[in-house]
Specification:
This protein is of the alpha+beta class. The protein is 67% helix and 12% strand.
Length: 410
């Protein structure tokens, strides 16, 4: 990038004051500042709390129980004393514990473990999605940046030629109409440069916004150098693994349903006072120990219906999994073909670029000697500009294809 271009890019900036920014910088900032990834990280913490809550739920449950009941009765009114005893005065500390809790706790913890694995896998997916978005915006901004450089370099070339042609025109060695045609294209090149600069700053702001970077100034972007990653197996692909985790979660939810249909045996221990008269409270202090056993027998076949719902969920997961595999293979084949075609186009365009640069150099000399008209020369300039822009577009297109390949092949 020429010193002139950098100095013209933003008032008050010189080549040394422009900050260099690489793709890695934006990837690091974007991943570090992403609220979505932070939320995913918090979800792992919440999952750990859920596991601790499951353990706490299955520990002994201790509670204080108090009751004051007074039921007066007369000859022809009041509750039956055989029912109320005239009152009830209770103050107990009671503890309950399910003696068959271990299997239930294991089932609940297995479900939490599957949910945690799913969250970790989701983090990998969200990281990859965010990286793809950042890379796409960076490539767009870099294409704008290179386009700004191309227009700026062309304007610089035409500016130097304008000084020469004005001197030739003053000496009557150059046609005035040809000079005016040249001047129009020279002025248009400045307009193109300014428009490219505005577009670059606009896309750079979008990139900064995506990465949560509080910057609005011009920077100098470094050339991206993405390369295709080695082919991974689908077994390691987080986008496919999510279906496996979803399936595991469904099956472990099936085991959670079973908890409600298993026998329950609870031991109950309490101690305190339990009396029917306030005068007897001090003499009715004691304790009790008991067992509560429950065994579900029939509830309208609800478990079978819940199982059927989970079967439908499994079928849905399988359908999406098969669709993903088909799309994955098709997309990889497509992007590989796109890379092959792009490479051929880049090679051809680079040869054209070399030829048009040589042609432009020769044509400049012929223009100064009057061997070629300004119109013909400007046609060569336009061809030079088109090839430069096309080569820039093809190079960025190749980087996009590689980005897509790496994204799908994650």
């Amino acid at each position: 990038m020429s010193t002139w271009l950098v100095c013209q890019a933003l008032p008050g900036y010189s080549q040394d004051t422009l900050v260099h920014r690489s793709l890695d910088y934006y990837l690091d900032q974007g991943l570090a500042n992403s609220p979505l990834l932070k939320e995913n990280s918090n979800a792992i913490t919440l999952n750990r709390f859920d596991s601790l809550i499951n353990v706490a739920i299955n520990k002994p449950y201790v509670q204080a129980i108090g009751q004051y009941l007074y039921a007066p009765a007369g000859t022809n009114w009041g509750y039956d004393q055989n029912t109320t005893n005239g009152g009830q005065y209770t103050g107990l500390i009671q503890a309950n514990r399910n003696l068959l809790y271990r299997r239930n706790l294991r089932i609940q913890n297995n479900l939490n473990a599957a949910l945690r694995d799913s969250v970790v896998n989701t983090i990998h997916i969200n990281q990859n999605d965010l990286q793809k978005s950042i890379i796409d915006l960076y490539l767009t901004a870099y294409q704008d940046y290179q386009q700004m450089v191309i227009f700026g370099d062309l304007y610089q070339i035409l500016t130097r030629q304008n000084d020469v042609l004005k001197e030739l025109l003053r000496k009557a060695l150059f046609n005035q109409s040809d000079y005016l045609a040249f001047r129009v294209d020279w002025q248009q090149s400045e307009v193109n440069y300014e428009a490219a600069k505005v577009q670059f700053l606009q896309d750079l702001l979008l990139l900064n916004t995506l990465c949560n970077i509080p910057e609005t100034g011009l920077v100098r972007l470094e050339k991206p150098a993405l390369s295709p990653l080695a082919r991974f197996t689908l077994d390691n692909n987080p986008y496919l693994l999510r279906f496996r985790y979803d399936s595991v979660i469904v099956e472990r939810n099936r085991r959670v349903i079973d908890i409600f249909y298993r026998p329950s045996l609870d031991v109950v221990v309490n101690a305190g006072t339990n009396a029917i008269s306030s005068d007897l409270i001090a003499r009715r202090i004691g304790y009790s120990v008991g067992l509560n056993f429950t065994m579900p027998i029939y509830n309208g076949n609800q478990r079978r219906l819940q199982y059927q719902k989970l079967d439908v969920a499994q079928l849905t997961i399988r359908n999406y999994r098969n669709q993903y595999i088909n799309r994955f293979n098709l997309q990889l084949r497509t992007v590989n073909e796109q890379l092959r075609v792009n490479q051929n186009l880049v090679s051809l365009t680079e040869k054209q670029n070399t030829d048009v640069e040589n042609l432009l150099t020769i044509s400049q000399t012929r223009l100064y000697r009057g061997d070629i008209s300004a119109i013909d020369y400007l046609l060569i300039v336009q061809r030079y500009l088109n090839i430069k822009l096309a080569l820039n577009q093809l190079n960025i297109q190749r980087q996009r294809f590689i980005s897509t390949f790496n994204y799908r092949n994650f």
